[in-house]
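2024-03-11 09:14:02 DEBUG pipeline.ingest accepted 1 chain
2024-03-11 09:14:02 DEBUG pipeline.ingest length=191
2024-03-11 09:14:03 DEBUG pipeline.predict start
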Amino acid sequence: MGNLIFKILLFTSLAFFFSACKEENLKTAIKQYKDRDFKNALFNFEKACLQGQIYACKMTASMYLHAKGTEASKAKSLKALEYACQWGDTLSCKITYKTYKALSLHQIANQMLQYGCQGGDSTLCVQLAINAYKNNDIKASLELANKACYGGNLQGCNLYLVLIEKHQKDPQKIKLIEKQIQKLNSKNQSS
């Protein structure tokens, strides 16, 4: 029993230590940036980004894009936004998705959609559902359209309705989706 308590205390202490470290990297980077020590700020922003600090990832992206503390690099800027997306920033997911799609890097673009959809952005779930449908993955398309619809996205509901009517023909689901569409339409009209 004593060994278990020791392990729990050790784990808790390590978690607190690593949490404090990532906060420290971010604080240091912000101070260095304010002091115009861009090279060291970039180094610490990158460390904080890799530890899950979304703001640090965005600052890293900006610094690479605007050549602060380093040479300009659109690729490194994009990679930093990719990390921000993975950590849950859906705006970064949209940016990286559009960029990778424009570069015809469809597999990576689709990953960005997945991260964004998991992060709760229903518009990205709709796009992911459309992509799944184009790849004949009806099951995934249905699940994603459902998630988008009940996440409050009218386009997701319309897609979900079409998919249910075409592939499942379930009258009960159709009625539920139609109610959700009415609910979203009335919500949009009152806004």
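2024-03-11 09:14:41 DEBUG pipeline.report The chain is about 80% helix and 0% strand.
2024-03-11 09:14:41 DEBUG pipeline.predict end
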